[in-house]
Amino acid sequence: MKLKRLPIGDSDFKTVIEDNAYYIDKSMLIKEIITGGRVILITRPRRFGKTLNMSMLEYFFKNDEDNKHLFENLKIYEEKEIIEKHLNKYPVIYLTFKDLKEKNYTEMISTLRKKISDLYREYVYLIESERLNKWEKEDIKEILGRKGENTLYENSILDLSRYLYKHHGKKAILLIDEYDTPIQQSYLKGYYEKFITFMGNVLGNALKDNKYLEK
């Protein structure tokens, strides 16, 4: 009998499932997300598998590939209505802040702007979308080039959800992992008061009363 490998340090859900690695089925979290509130905060200790769960949610919801095979042997697949209505049906924005541990405000803002620019590269096709106007496309290009004022980046996640809604005709799923890492770092390094305004605007603009988000 061949033992399944332990996915130590592996937080990519697709890799874990396709490699037939040892996996504790937490797929019913998907149902909790669907039936829960519009904004859900998942709090767990470090090394509890939050990032793997985020990856699972991304593969379940995102509409740019067919991932049915990843869930066929999991508990969530018994929920036929959920599978039919929600599996691979949404544009997904997945943003992780786990590596944002800069020593000062200037470096943190620069790294965060790069993080957002890299995120936008996943949706570069929006530049060619007939459903976006020229000003929206110019803003996308500014972020791709890491240009523009900080206010452009403070609204970047909100704006991206709007662009995706206009292009796909579907509200987006927004997944944010380790949002507290840069906030904690700014506190430890002494630039919290300056940084929290910027970070608060990024998250607040994206989450508060955002009509372009499904979750």
Structural class, from helix and strand content? mainly alpha
| Shape verdict | globular
What is the spatial order of strands in the main beta sheet?
Answer: 1-2
What amount of the residues lies in strands?
A: under 5%
Mean pLDDT: 91
| Assembly state | single chain
Q: How far from one another are the termini?
A: 42 Å
Q: Could you tell me the radius of gyration in angstroms?
A: 18 Å
The total number of structural domains is: 2
Number of helices: 11
Work out the helicity level.
40-55%
Biggest beta sheet attributes: 2 strands, parallel
Write the H/E string, N to C. Answer: HHHHHEHHHHEHH
Residue stretches low in confidence (pLDDT < 50, at least 5 long) are: none
The count of strands amounts to: 2
List keywords for this structure.
two-stranded parallel ribbon; globular; 2 domains
SSE order and pairing:
Blueprint lengths: L12 H6 L10 H7 L14 H12 L6 H4 L8 H7 L5 E5 L8 H17 L12 H11 L5 H5 L1 H13 L4 E5 L2 H10 L2 H16 L8
Parallel strand pairs: 1-2
Helix pairs in contact: 9-11, 10-11
Q: What does the model show?
A:
The protein is mostly helical and 215 residues long. It has two domains: 7-89, no CATH class; 99-168 and 178-206, no CATH class. It has helices at 13-18, 29-35, 50-61, 68-71, 80-86, 105-121, 134-144, 150-154, 156-168, 180-189, 192-207, and strands at residues 92-96, 173-177. The chain has a two-stranded parallel ribbon. Helix 9 (156-168) packs parallel to helix 11 (192-207).
Summarize the structure.
The chain has 215 residues and is mainly α. It is 50% helix and 5% strand. The protein has eleven helices and two strands, in the order H-H-H-H-H-E-H-H-H-H-E-H-H.
